[in-house]
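Thread: Newbie trying to understand structure tokens

Hi all, I'm a second-year student working on a class project, and my supervisor (Dr. K.) asked me to get a predicted structure for one chain before our next meeting. I've only ever worked with sequences, so writing a 3D structure as a token string is new to me. If someone could post the tokens and maybe explain what I'm looking at, I'd be very grateful. Here's the chain:
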Amino acid sequence: MTTRAGFIALIGEPNAGKSTLTNAMVGAKVSIVTHKVQTTRARIRGVAMEGDSQLVFVDTPGLFKPRRRLDRAMVAAAWGGAADADVIVLLIEAHRGITEGVESILEGLKDLPQNRTVALAINKIDRVEAPALLALTQAINERYAFARTFMISAEKGYGIEDLRSWLANEMPESPWLYPEDQIADLPMRMIAAEITREKLTLRLHQELPYQLTVETESWEERKDGSARIDQVVYVARDGHKGIVLGHKGETIKAISKAAREELTEFLDRPIHLFLQVKVRENWLEEAERYSEMGLDFRDGNA
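---
Reply by user tm_fold:
Sure, no problem. This is what the structure looks like when written as tokens:
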């Protein structure tokens, strides 16, 4: 049997649907999905099997114009993921078309090695009529020589099989890079932290956009098969702590319950989750926090 394996970088603007596509391809939730832009901070790898091919998805942070250190580190991580991949898939939203951000990404693609295989996936095709979709396809293919163009809806599953099948054939001959039943190469501690951060983002999307991070402080396996997970939610200001806790601790209880239920389902065993909220005024400037998120602190330098 000839096996194939390789890395696929999904790039695009924030909220283009990269996390949703990763999860659809892998068949499990390995990357958090929220309506808030810029939720994907680390290069989360999801692993999917297609025939004799192993597809390793690098779900990069959305590409945008960086302003802060964290922003710059995220953009560097996204382009780093693209440069290292065997195949790049640019994801754009059908109803938004060629935005200023997409134009910027198309320019960035021209700086990559010429032999890099780049495909285009036009996502959310259910939101536009066929003539507009064809016009967009023609216009963007005139800007860049894509190897293939796919029409998909990551959320509804349209076109996913065609894309996955094509990617499987594009992978180089190689032994599989991960065990056949492994779906992500992130340590479970980080996946657990990401799940809690998703619940925080969904609950507090107006009050606290990006001023918080979550770390799994300890993970204790218990004899009955359950696990105790202790996590710390770091916020940048004292006032933020009260927002996260909520009146009489109601907000943090609801977040903890939602995260615990998802972790229990994801890990298929009972989970006891304990959250603490701590103020770290300069966490956005601490190298250690970036390492926890899988980012390089040095990439945030102006």
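A couple of things are worth pointing out once you decode it. The longest strand covers residues 212-221. The first helix runs from residue 18 to 26. Feel free to ask follow-ups in this thread.
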